[in-house]
Amino acid sequence: MSKQKLNVKEKYRLLTRDLDWEYSYRDRKEIFPFEEYEGIKITDWSKWEDPFRLTMDAYWKYQAEKEKKLYAILDAFAQNNGQLNVTDARYINAIKLFLTGISPGEFQAAMGFAHVGRQYGGVGARVACQMQAIDELRHVQTQIHAMSHYNKYFDGFQDFPHMHDRVWYLSVPKSFFDDARTAGPFEFLVAIGFSFEYVLTNLLFVPFMSGAAYNGDMATVTFGFSAQSDEARHMTLGLEIIKFLLEQHPDNVPIVQRWINKWFWRGTRMLALVGMMMDYMLPNKVMSWKEAWEVYFEEAGEALFKDLARYGIEMPSYAATAIAEKEHISHQAWAIFYNYTHAAAFHTWVPEEKELDWLSEKYPDTFDKYYRPRFEKWREMEQAGERFYNPTLPMLCQTCQIPMAFTEMDDPTLISYRQSVFDGERYNFCSDGCKDIFDYEPQKYVSAWLPVHQIYQGNCGGADVETVLREYYRLNMGADNLDYHGSPDEARWNEWHDLQSAEDKYRKAS
């Protein structure tokens, strides 16, 4: 009698769900001690629906095909000196920001999914977390490979793993993922799987990849496309997580709502980095941060939360504040980095006149009124040989760890400043959202590693800023940092293109 061939659904069940076993010699609560830790109630793990039913053999084959295409294009990019074909060397600073700020977050996500997958009693959830952990690890590897080419020609790439744990602005994404990884297993899934991967991921990946395409960076475009099919699977998983938790028990609804509120706000704070990349770091601009926010959050988010309303879920707290911030957040973030670019591993600059005109067009109600005069003043100072660098160390928000430079939305001339007192100590916050997060679980955030505090306490290698930058951050002073104009990156770029122009003239003449 011939053996009947298994269909995909049966094969998937055998290679995933049927790997589970009965726990005969240990109590189930002892095996999964964190499953009830957060108050979440799971009544039936079999209701978990896997959005993509990939078996391991199919997964490896599928990913291997993508790897072959990816590395073929990366090799061609390197062999053809692809770094010469980007629009402008200023653009490379966006890639420096991605490599140092985003790629380590992918690794954090990989470790997080590998850890929390062990905590679930449902085998479907465990397999889904395993698959996403492998995806995230692959993403960080392909990103490092893609961007390693630029390390041969530009400053600031050389020591990003060391910088991740020490440099002030990298504490923003690091604290985001540290917060998620030290949460319970279900909060982690809501934080990364839903709030970040589903609600906010398009605001991260689409601008970066389309920006790369508009600026001739085919290495970044390629790893973006290679990761995009994985991101689609992650987004679907993120939505499944929420619906599964909400359908399991009505007591889960207020817990999930609180997590959505928290991680939406934490995510929007971190995405200020993406906003300034879109508006200021791309020589060829795709769209403004304001436009991206309207498309990828206001339109898509409104539809999403209408769908979730039947479970009792509402729009995140402070969504209205985040919507108002679309007019301001990118300009204020760029101003922070312009002030402190002597302490950063990438360059900043005053936008060119045509770029200021573009910003005036995209932000007609706010840019000329609040921000253009500031940039024009800084340009006057630079032309007079007095390029402005802020010599002070800024106060940081205890929750998101961003310098306290964001403003009240109803008065953009006034710094937003909140305080809480816990255990006799005063803590400072950049917003009501960050204050509320702290106030709910202050014991967690009082232990935050704040770079400015650590510098003042003498824990960062020296008593003065230059020693901290040189010995603790390991910045190559005068090369990795300071303004783009006058940098070695600019000098090399001009030299390459002068030579290229000479070669082009010779070819035409011959």
Task: Note down, in words, how this protein is organized.
With 510 residues, this protein is mainly alpha-helical. It has a domain at 8-44 and 51-327 and 354-378: Ribonucleotide Reductase, subunit A (Orthogonal Bundle). Helices cover 61% and strands 3% of the residues. The strands form 2 sheets. A two-stranded antiparallel ribbon has the order 1-2. Strands 3-4 form a two-stranded antiparallel ribbon. A hairpin with a 2-residue loop joins β3 (418-422) and β4. α11 crosses α14 (329-339). It starts with 7 loop residues before the first helix and ends with a helix. The relative contact order is 0.09.
Put the structure in a nutshell.
The protein is mainly alpha-helical.
Overall body shape = globular
CATH topology of the domain at 8-44 and 51-327 and 354-378: Ribonucleotide Reductase, subunit A
Distance between the termini: 76 Å
* Extended strand count: 4
Radius of gyration: 24 Å
Helix content: 55-70%
CATH class of the domain at 8-44 and 51-327 and 354-378: Mainly Alpha
Number of contiguous helices: 21
Strand order of the largest sheet: 1-2
Order of helices and strands: HHHHHHHHHHHHHHHHEEEEHHHHH
Per DSSP, what share of the residues sits in E-state strands of 2 or more residues? under 5%
| CATH 2nd-level architecture of the domain at 8-44 and 51-327 and 354-378 | Orthogonal Bundle
Low-confidence stretches: none
